[in-house]
Structure formats: C-alpha cells, structure tokens
Amino acid sequence: MSATQFQLDDTIGALASAAGPTVRGIVRISGPRALESLNGWFEPADFERWQSAHGATAHAGGLRLDGLRSPLGVTVYTWPNGRSYTGQPLVEIHAPGSPALLEAILARSFAAGVRPAQPGEFTLRAFLAGRMDLLQAEAVLGVIDAAGEDALAIALRQLAGGISGRMIQVRADLIDLLADLEAGLDFVEDGIEFVSRADLAARIGHAQSTFGELLAQCQSRAQSQGRRRVVLAGLPNAGKSTLFNALLSRDAALVSAVAGTTRDYLSGSVDWSGVAVELIDTPGWEFFDATDREAGDTSGFARELTRRAQELGGEQRDQADLVLWCSAADAGAADQRADFELRRRAIGR
Q: Which of 34, 66, 68, 330 places its Cα 20 to 30 Å from the Cα of 306?
C-alpha cells in the first residue's frame, strides 16, 4: 500500500501495547486532531495545564466510557507538536491493561473521528517525517518478527541506528578522502601530496571491509528470522495430532480414535534448541478417487470435504522445508502397504 493510500492527514489510532491482559495497556493516536479527538470524554485533573501544554506532557485524569458509571483513571501523554514518534501531534492513553477496557477506549476514539491505523502506518509516518531512516523503519518489523534472542538483538541494534551510524561514518570518511584527492590535484604541480597511494588503498579497503560486515549482519538477521516449516504427514490415525500437541506442549489439535478427525491443517510455533520452527499438522493422507466412500451420503458433501482436505494437506507438504512422516506402530498389513506407497509419493522414499 502506498503512502497516498494511507491518507497521511487522517488522525489514526491503534493499540500500542501487547495483546492480552497486562498491568498497563497503551492506545496511541496520531494526526492533526489527536488532542482534539479526546474532547468530551477525557477529563484532565488539571484542565488549565491540559489546555496550555506546548511540549511533551503527562496528564492524569479520567475517561468517560459507555458502560462505566465513573470515569476510568488514566494517564494521557501528549506531544502537541512535531517532536513525537510520528512527527505529528500524538497522544498515548495509558490505562489498566484489560482487553475489554482497551477495546472500549479504541471504540470511543473511533467514534470521535479517529481512523483505525493500518499495519505499519505509525512507522510509515515516522519515516516520512524524518524521525527514522529506512533501515530503522525496516528494523521495527525485525523487532516484531524476531524469532529468537539473536534476531531480536540484531534488530534492536539496527533500530538504535547501529547500521545507519556506521554507514554515516564511512560516508564521512570517504568524503574526507575525496577532499584530500581533489586537494592533491590542485597542487600537483607543486609536488604536494595530501594522501599517499598506500593511505588511499588502506582507507578504501577499510570502507569496503565495513560495508562487508554490515551486509553480513543484515543477511544474518534475515536468515535468523526465517521459520523452518515442518509438516507432519501420514495416514489417518497415525498419531500426527498427538505428536503435534506434544511438541507444542498444549492441546491445540483435536485428538480422536475416529479416522479423518483432522479436516484442515493446524499451525503452531516451536522453539527447537534455538531454531524457530513452524509446525504444521495436516489431515491424514488417503487414496482418494471420484467415488463417494461415505456411506449414506447422497449429496457428495463428504466426498468434496475429503477432497479439499487432501488438497490442503498436499499444499502444505509442497511448501515444507521438512516432511515428517508419521506411521502407526500397530498398523495392519494393508495399512503398512498404503503407508509405504503414500510415504514414497510424499518424500520419495
């Protein structure tokens, strides 16, 4: 989505704290009408101070919300000028971290003319206002998507300007080197040398080495973010969902002795010895033909449902980094033959 599609003059709002219950939740509002949007439902403890604030200020007070008999005690932080994260007037409402209360605050702000922010819209405004460079904006996504401590540490350094700062320093060094070279050309007839060939090669070599390190750092972060897709496949009732639940340490998949219980694929994240893994539980793989094998089904619904489940499972296997084939230990001879044939089709062995 382009910047023009985001309508940068809109006043936008969104939850700025982590989802779920917490001690304190934050609702962020940014745009020309950020402070004005609170009129009529925020009651500052010091009204005169609220009206006269020109810089970053914290205001205690209460919010009047539908369904609450008395105002909800909050602290509102205001940036009425362009010295905020987004470079626009900005408000942060710090309230008790009840999801229901935070949703009520968002709903009230939307009713006051605030538009729900699109993903990344606050960061886009910060970038366009010059509050951060493109590398730092990209690092925000890196922090959000960090799959491990190493990836998070690299993204945080990038967000703090670690990469940009070193690039700026190398650029300044190269400009100084260019000035030395140009000065030497101006005085070439006088035999004055501002930089020797050896010094020139050393300084260029240092710049190349620094950029090589920065490139390796960025590539390392990109690689560390990637999640390995591991797909659990096998015949119906082979124990895929049981294994899926065991690896996730929670009952995410329905487990039943009835074959074909899993009709759709399920996904879960696992940290396997520091490696981020996306674990996929798929429907049991079956030999499927055009005939309806569901007794008593005259509409063909069960046949279509089975066919679609097989397609979904196949799509997940095709996208997998690793297919983990599950076989039932108590399978009979017929199931063992089917298991062997389907495993050969799935993983080529």
A: 330
- Amino acid in the structure at residue 193: E
Angle at 202 between CA 199 and CA 206, to 5 degrees: 140
CA distance 9 to 32: 7
> At residue 13, what are phi and psi to the nearest 5 degrees?
-145, 155
Among 206, 29, 219, smallest CA distance to 116 is for 29
Query: What's the Cα-to-Cα distance from 217 to each of 138, 143, 173, 210, 213, rounded to whole Å?
Result: 14, 15, 21, 11, 6
Alpha-carbon distance 26 to 28, whole Å?
6
d(Cα 226, Cα 60) in Å, to the nearest integer?
Answer: 43
Task: Pinpoint the alpha helices (H) of the chain.
Answer: 47-52, 99-111, 121-128, 134-145, 149-159, 162-186, 197-225, 240-248, 301-318, 333-347
pLDDT tens-digit profile of 40-98? 999 999 999 998 888 899 999 999 998 888 999 999 999 998 789 899 999 999 999 99
Q: Report the relative pairing of strands 42-44 and 57-63 from DSSP bridges.
A: antiparallel
| pLDDT, tens digit (0-9, with 9 covering 90-100), for 272-301 | 766 778 888 888 776 544 444 444 444 555
The residues with which 13 forms a beta bridge, in sequence order, are 29, 116
pTM > 0.85: yes or no: no
Residue environment code for 144-170, b if the CB has 16+ CB neighbours within 10 A, otherwise e: eebbeeebbebbebbbebbbbeebeeb
Report helix angle 162-186 to 149-159, nearest 10. 50
Residue 250 is which amino acid?
R
Q: Which two tokens stand for residue 303?
A: 């046949």
Burial group, residue 233, by CB count within 10 angstroms (0-12, 13-18, 19+):
buried
Angle between helices 134-145 and 197-225 (to 10 degrees): 30
The two tokens of residue 330 are 């108590």
CA distance 202 to 215: 20
Q: How far apart, in whole angstroms, are the C-alpha atoms of residue 31 and residue 9?
A: 7
The answer to whether 266 and 275 are in contact (CB under 8 A) is no
